[in-house]
Amino acid sequence: MLTAVHLTSWLWLALEIGLVVRDRRRGRGSAAADRGTRWVVVALTLSATLAATVFGVVLPADSGIRFAALGHPHWAPAAGLAVMVAGLAVRAWSVVVLGRAFRTTVEVDRGQEVVTRGPYRWVRHPSYNGVLLLAGGYGLAAGNWLSLLCTVVLPLASVLVRIDVEEQVLTRVLGRPYERYRAATKRLVPGVW
C-alpha cells in the first residue's frame, strides 16, 4: 500500500512539474502579481510531506501518536491513498476545466472568462482542494497524528494566503463577473466556506 502512496506522490510531482513547464513553453507563469505565494505553497507543502515521511518512519509503532495505538494500524495507508487519489483527480480536473487559463502563478488575462463549470460550480478554488487532499492524504497514510497535523495545517495556511492574493487579482482584472461568482460560490468547502 505504501508503494501506491509513493507512486501517487510521484504522479502529483509530475503533474506540478508539467504545469510549470507548460507555463514556460507558452510564455506564461509570471510571478509579478504572485507576491511569493507560489513558493510559500511549495515550501510549506513540501516541508509538511517531508515531516510526515520522517514522523512515519521514526515514531514507534506503539506510540500514542501513531494510529496503530488505536488498534487499527492497517486502515491509514489505504485511507490516505484514497484521499490522495481523490485529490489528484480534483487537481487534474480543475486544470483541465480551466485549460489555458490555469497557471501555477497568480496571472489573469484581461477578458478571461469566469469559469463556473466542472468543479468550479461548487467552489472557487478546487485545484487548491486537490492540493490539500493530496497533502492530507499523505499525512494520513503516514499513520500518525503528527504527520496528519503537519500535512493539513501547513498547506492550508499557505493556500489561504495564496487565495487572498489570487482573489484580489481576479477581482481587479475580471471585475463584476468575478464578484458575482465570488458572492454565489464558496471558497473551499461547498455550501459552507
UniProtKB/TrEMBL annotation:
PANTHER family: BLL3993 PROTEIN. The lineage of its organism: Bacteria, Bacillati, Actinomycetota, Actinomycetes, Pseudonocardiales. It is a multi-pass membrane protein. This is Protein-S-isoprenylcysteine O-methyltransferase Ste14. Keywords: Membrane, Methyltransferase, Transferase, Transmembrane, Transmembrane helix. Its main location: membrane. It is found in: Endomembrane system. InterPro entries: Metal_cation-efflux_comp, Phopholipid_MeTrfase. One of its GO terms (molecular function) is methyltransferase activity. Pfam families: PEMT. The chain crosses the membrane at residues 38-61, 73-93, 131-154. GO terms for cellular component: endomembrane system. GO terms for biological process: methylation.
